[in-house]
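Risk mitigation, structural track. In case the binding assays with NAP fail to produce interpretable data, a predicted complex structure has been prepared as a fallback.
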Amino acid sequence: MFYKGKNVLVAGGGGLVGQSLVTKLLDQGAHVRATQYRHRKIAACHKNLEIVSCDLRNQDEARDVFKDMDIAFLAAARVRGAKQLQENPADLILDYLDLHAKLITLAAASKVGRCSFISSCYIYPDTGKPNRESEGFEGDPWIPTNYGIGWTTRYLETLCRYSHMTTKTDYGIVRPNAYYGPHDNFDPEHCHVVPALIVKATQKMNPFEVWGDGEQIRCFTYVDDLVDGILLNLEKNATCDPVNICTEKTNNVKDIVALILDILKLNVEVCYAPDKPSTIPYRVSDASKAKKILGWEARTSLREGLKKTIEWYQEQANVSMK
Ligand SMILES: NC(=O)c1ccc[n+]([C@@H]2O[C@H](COP(=O)([O-])OP(=O)(O)OC[C@H]3O[C@@H](n4cnc5c(N)ncnc54)[C@H](OP(=O)(O)O)[C@@H]3O)[C@@H](O)[C@H]2O)c1
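Fallback model:
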């Protein structure tokens, strides 16, 4: 048990990845300090869990949470969906850059031994085939919305490498692809496609409007599987060598729609809105390196993962209506 007895920081413990990280680290015997921010509160409660409410953009507050940590997972972010990325990409990029650059360098300045950075598949050029890790710095992420965020992500991976070269901190880098699950952001203005569809289905929207043409292909990965990969990568591969962590299976948005409607036994008229914001049509990552060097592969089927996410969301919605 690599994490047992270690002091571990989860920056962004209230979010989709953060909540799963907190639970799994506590299960593995770590002493966890986790931060929460404005909206989502950390659900776990455990004698080895310290919860800190703070704004990690504030240098003093951030410095305090890194104190005496052996390991840090960077899972704080202002994550947004296609609408925000199209309407205000510069704002999103500045926020992403500011927060992550501060946290990556602060981990080293605080003498944290290992630090995990969750990179992104936005880094890849659009090749029309599954992207391998070696393509992360080839060509340009070409469509305008991906160009800015793609190059910013390349910079942040480079900052991890630079930080490792100049300090004793080791970094693990993973590149996820379209993950989803409980504790996601379900705010319709800002969320990704899976939570957006779950909100509409729970409201029994009819006609059931789907943004885009429904043909967008991704490796939809359940968050607990992703987090198993993030934990393994920092344990076995804290070398700044990036690894794609995603399911080998590909699906399009139409598959997600069909599964959600089937799980909820809803009979509604589905209408696609190609003029509404959506992202790049084909974004698939090659997951073979994770299997080879970490022995990791996704275990949760899309149906099972969506069912768990829907059940969690409905439970929250019921609680908030009581
Ligand atoms: N989701 C994606 O599409 C995606 C893709 C590639 C990489 N990543 C990276 O994966 C990591 C985890 O993201 P996620 O998907 O778990 O996102 P998430 O569900 O939105 O969680 C992020 C958490 O960070 C918190 N946060 C935001 N700004 C903060 C600040 N200034 N100080 C402290 N906490 C702050 C949020 O607080 P609230 O609860 O108040 O919102 C939220 O709880 C991030 O590093 C992100 O950049 C995400």
